[in-house]
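Q: Sequence in, structure out?
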Amino acid sequence: MDGYQYNWNVVWQSLPELRQGLIITLQVSIMGMSLAIVFGLLCAIGRLSQYGYIRKFSVAVIDFSRSIPLFVLLFWVYYGLSLKFSINLTAFQAGAIALGITGGAYMAEVFRGGINAVDFGQREAALAIGLTQSKAFNLVVLPQAIRIIVPQAVNVYVGLLKGATIVSVIGVADMIYVAQYISLNSFTPFEMYSAVGVAFIALTVSIAGLAFLLEAKLNKGRSRG
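A: Exactly. Output:
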């Protein structure tokens, strides 16, 4: 980029707007992850069902959700629901739902793997002492599975956080939206998107560090038990 005059002052001057955009990015990704956890757990339970038709339906839902690009899903949720069913969602809501569907498909496999990793004998022991299937799952299986699920769930969230950068295409005023708007008006695309890149690196490293500490704490509690 010979002859290009860098203007990093624009980044410093735009920090309040970038910070607000970052907050919205975090909000939509956290909301999406919350939906992904619920959707993923339901699909995982369906995949582990004793009824074949429920298992097949759950597999179909998971495969369908994983095969649709997030970009396309955003438009389907935001515009498709409005045009076909007159369900008018805000751009933020549509973004969170699309992220939840995409993340839920991956969380389903994370939950299934964690649940299957728990020794089946413990489930049988819980049933033998009089617990119902649901209580055995909630009180015995799920708490142990969480220790296995947490690290992989963090990876799913990091993926959703990065995926959230495209919600600006339907008008969500996230960090990318703000950076794009400022760069178009100040002719500083390199500086603005570099700032976004640094922010995301800092976020993902921080999240990974917190996940490591949480995993260590869970494993420590397990070893004491």
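Residues 214 and 220 are 10 Å apart (CA to CA).
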